[in-house]
Amino acid sequence: MIIAVVMAASAGATLHPPAGYQQAPQHHAASRFTCPAFPAPFTGALDFTSKYEGSDSARATLNPQADRAFHQQTKSITGLEKVVSQVVAGFAHDGNPARAECVVNGLDLWARAGALTTVAKNHTGKSMRKWALATLASSWLQLKFSPAHPLEGQQEKVADIEHWLSHLADLTVADWRDLPLKRVNNHSYWAAWAIMATAVVTDRRDLFDQSLAMYRTAANQVDNAGFLPNELRREQRTFSYHNYAIQPLVMIALFARSNGVEVTSENNKALQRLANRVLSGFDNPDVFTRKTGIPQDIAFTRQASSLAWLEGWCALEECGPEVKQRIAALRPLHSTRLGGDLSWLFAPH
User: Fold this and answer.
1) In total, how many domains does the chain have?
2) pLDDT per residue over 300-314, tens digit each?
3) For a 10 Å CB count at each end of the chain, is N or C smaller?
4) Sign of CA dihedral 203, 209, 211, 212
5) What is the CATH number of the domain that holds 95?
6) pTM higher than 0.90 for the full model?
7) Strand 340-341 and strand 334-335: pairing?
8) Burial of 7 (0-12, 13-18, 19+ CB in 10 A)
9) In terms of residue numbers, what domain contains 280?
10) CA angle 322, 314, 2 (to 5 degrees)
């Protein structure tokens, strides 16, 4: 009831991101910058090889040959994500307007080509579309809401790009909504994050509400012990996928709070239970081993990008000294699909 009242009160307000997306660049120097080459727009069928091809239903055993094929097939898409994320992160630090112009020109080529809008013929195709959208929309937010106004004077291209992102969001909604619960897992949560970021870019309340609905489905999947049943099927990667699943949920909760909607209370503070479960695994993953009966792959815990969500989590909830120390040792924490430099966006300066 409280959530419904807050939503009603804010329904007419313009959507906006958390404050970190609206801070001025650290410097205002036209530092030397050469715009990197953007990959050619991907306009083919979204039909890609799964890196787990040949695996059983757990989808936990990597197929090296299929993985190589996947990376080759998706090279232009991941290349676009990388260049946009890196250039926008650079703008946050030096404020060079040439960086914004670089991103606008590069994305305008993809927008005018209708890239990524073809039929997604398989699960991996749908996944690539929503991952790309998550990166592009969350990076674009930093240019759109910057008090330096780096997009001024490029209105026509900006309109084309935002229309394209909006279209990608509609396709992402169609790809991932109304799935049976047994198939709703981390992929749906990442789709919801892509939709949320685009909702704020385009000020579309319908996308905002769709993302919240998907978030609530996720929250209702968290059990009393903080586990996600559909991620428990991932055998040796169960812990890894719990860590992966929470990342977009934290971002959605942050964006919801910034727009007057508090979702952290959903399902008796489900997000906090999930976070506590994942955090406990960093020091001792045995709880996941006992739950699955399989020793866990913990390689991801040594990858800073896999832990970047902690910056968002500590902006959402008060973190203890152990978590703060873990984050401080890893900064700056960067995650391309969560918005780039999360230390810049969420850590106290």
Assistant:
1) 1
2) 999 999 999 999 999
3) N
4) positive
5) 1.50.10.100
6) yes
7) antiparallel
8) middle
9) 2-7+16-346
10) 135
